[in-house]
Amino acid sequence: ARLGLRGEYEYASGNWWLSPRMSLHESFAEKDQLTFAAGLYAQNDLPFYVREQNPKIGSEKAWHFQAEWTRYISKSIRLEWQNYYKYYFDLVSPRLQSTGRINWENGFGNIDSTEFEALNPVLKAVILPYLSDKEFQYSNEGIGFNAGSELSLFYKPDSVWEGWVSGELAYSRRQDHEGERWYKFTFSRPWAINWVNWYHAPSNWDVGLRYKIAAGEPYTDFSNPLNSERDETSDTAFWAGARNEKEYTPYNRVDIRLVKNSLLFGGKTQYYFEIWNAFNSPNFLLQDSESKKIKYFQLNYPFPIVFIGLNWRW
Questions:
Q1: Among 216, 211, 66, 70, which residue's Cα sits nearest to residue 148?
Q2: Which of 31-35, 164-168, 246-250 has the lowest mean pLDDT?
Q3: What are the Cα distances from residue 185, in Å, to 49, 172, 243, 288?
Q4: At 273, is the secondary structure helix, strand, or coil?
Q5: Contact 21, 65 (CB under 8 A)
Q6: How far is CA 129 from CA 4, 32, 114, 119, 265, in A?
Q7: In angstroms, how far is the first alpha carbon of the chain from the final one?
Q8: In terms of Cα–Cα distance, which of 133, 46, 49 is closest to 97?
């Protein structure tokens, strides 16, 4: 067993906390190994606009719990089963708030500044939220959880070929403010399958192949002016559904890597050639998983991209 305790301090927010860690490794029957781990972790690399808006906002934190079983089937085959649970707190959550600065271009009831100042204070307080500018404020009020399981098979049948294949299931939810709706994390994928192979070819050549297929990420449905979609329950041409209630279609890709190993000025050198998104579906067009309608697009390459590079270590 290994125990650890780390103290952390964040200069921006002025907060400090203790971060305990624990891991336990137990082997039995010569072929099996169990691992249990737990700890408190923090993440403070928040987007710049969050820090700019609320400089004293604190780090996001999570309790991690993990259990792993490893079975050595043979010298060349290993089976691993990982299960995890994460409880998040102090998540950064946005809230749209009034700045108190009136924007007369909003055109509420054709009222101007002179007429507004002449109103009854109670009536002014009612009208102000409609006239004032809005801005996002951020706070550490969010909570959430994430649970998942992954089964992996590692193999190395000989000295020139190795790889692994895995399948995983996950479930996650978060809540921004107390009493509000729970919704899926933005980059959550309920399931995914990975297959990776690495070949050590003659003359110091290596070839890597990777295949991945995964569920589509969740998204918030919205009206699309291009095809005049409209929610039957809405009285306006523009509408938005519940946050992250929908999912995009599954995503798949194939990546290929070719490497030449050598020495350059006494340092280990790799000349590599890569192809990303080979034989993939056009995943830059994001389609709804049910209707198959195009809802959005992302800055992802819709065709294979070639990379040529050099790694040198000394």
A1: 66
A2: 246-250
A3: 20, 6, 10, 17
A4: strand
A5: no
A6: 50, 63, 18, 15, 68
A7: 36
A8: 133
DSSP 1-50: -EEEEEEEEETTTTEEEEEEEEEEEEEETTTEEEEEEEEEEEE----HHH
DSSP state of 175: E
C-alpha distances (whole Å) from 152 to each of 84, 93, 163, 166, 210 are 14, 35, 11, 4, 15
Residue 171 three-state SS = strand
Q: What is the pTM of this model?
A: 0.76
Q: Which of 30, 45, 41 is nearest to 84 (CA)?
A: 41
Render pLDDT for 103-161 as a digit per residue (tens, 0 to 9). Answer: 666 555 566 667 777 778 887 777 777 777 778 889 999 999 999 999 999 999 988 99
Number of H helices, E strands in the chain: 3, 16
